[in-house]
Design a protein that fits this description.
Distance between the termini: 10 Å
Strand content: 5-15%
Number of helices: 10
Strand order of the largest sheet: 1-4
CATH architecture of the largest domain: Orthogonal Bundle
Oligomer: single chain
Order of helices and strands: EHEEHHHHHHHHHE
Radius of gyration: 25 Å
Shape: elongated
Structural class: mainly alpha
CATH superfamily of the largest domain: MetI-like
CATH class of the largest domain: Mainly Alpha
Largest sheet: 2 strands, antiparallel
CATH topology of the largest domain: MetI-like fold
Length: about 325
């Protein structure tokens, strides 16, 4: 049966916290294992079909001279297409330019700038999407008339939309936020619309029997029932927000974000491919952090709203 978290005994509450801690550590362990597997596959491809490589040096006083010539030749695994993991890692601690700061520090600053743009666009898109969903759920006419256009808006390539938005608004980073909002409002609209209708029909009948107003039904029934659907949509929107911010920075000519680093290191890819790969790694990290923050917010909100623990009859 389900027992409210506030009514649990200290022992049961401690057991609940322990289970959650184990679950968090288990997920972290799975993530680490997956990451190590990716890196292992990466280097295995280099081992089998990459360019020849060697190690010459001294480790703990022991001289190491090793040269490896892969038995196969795969273009996708050569040093230009797929640098070694240690080369990409070393790129973070190499100077971004001669006598300049470390590349990792430069990329971190650019990542923070892009994250702020993505966050602003994410908020704009989330509010717009949720507002449209509330409107549609209360007006079938508006839903039938506008939902097809909402869906059709996502069929236009973002690469075509971003220059138009940037040139029309000429608002710098705010233009990028608008591009991000355009990319993020759609999943929020669809997810929230589904969630606002997810409550038990009997609950709607109960509210109507008490002459509840639309606003009361929305705030006390529809919104709480929509939270799982809404947060699922927000996680998708968070990942899309980072992509939208990076794409929007290119026509805006913003030099402080990750798009500038991508364009810059793409020009020097032949001589330093590991720098572009390091930028790609950081772009992925920004997206994962953003989605992780939304997931954390979901856990906090849903725990407060549905703070229950399944306890067997014997307990």
């Amino acid at each position: 049966m389900a027992v409210a978290a506030g009514s649990l005994s200290p022992t049961a509450r401690a057991a609940s916290v322990g289970r959650r801690s184990i679950s968090v550590w288990r997920k972290a362990a799975v993530a680490i294992v997956v990451l190590l597997a990716v890196l292992l596959i990466w280097e295995a491809a280099k081992w089998l079909g990459g360019d020849p490589w060697f190690i010459h040096g001294t480790v703990f006083g022991v001289r190491i001279d090793y040269e490896h010539r892969p038995p196969l030749q795969w273009r996708i695994a050569d040093d230009l297409s797929l640098p070694h993991v240690w080369d990409v890692t070393r790129a973070f601690v190499d100077p971004a330019q001669r006598n300049g700061p470390l590349l990792g520090l430069v990329l971190s600053g650019q990542a923070l700038f892009t994250f702020r743009e993505a966050l602003v666009g994410f908020v704009f898109g989330g509010i717009l999407g949720l507002g449209l969903a509330v409107w549609f759920v209360h007006s079938q006419l508006a839903e039938r008339a506008l939902v097809p256009y909402v869906v059709a808006s996502q069929t236009v390539p973002i690469l075509a939309i971003s220059p138009i938005v940037v040139n029309a608004t000429k608002a710098g980073w705010l233009s990028v936020a608008l591009v991000t909002a355009y990319l993020t409002f759609f999943p929020v609209t669809i997810g929230a619309l589904r969630g606002l209708r997810a409550a038990d029909p009997r609950a709607f009948e109960l509210f109507r029997s008490y002459a509840a107003s639309r606003r009361q039904i929305l705030m006390r029934l529809r919104m709480p029932a929509s939270l799982p659907y809404l947060f699922a949509a927000l996680r998708i929107a968070a990942a899309a927000a980072v992509i939208g911010a990076i794409i929007g920075e290119i026509p805006a000519g913003i030099q402080d974000g990750l798009a500038s680093a991508i364009v810059n290191y793409n020009q020097y890819y032949v001589t330093a491919p590991e720098r572009l790969w390091a930028t790609i790694v950081l772009c992925s990290a920004v997206g994962l952090v953003f989605v992780g923050l939304v997931k954390l917010a979901e856990a906090v909100v849903l725990r407060r709203r549905y703070g229950t623990l399944d306890v067997s009859p014997g307990q």
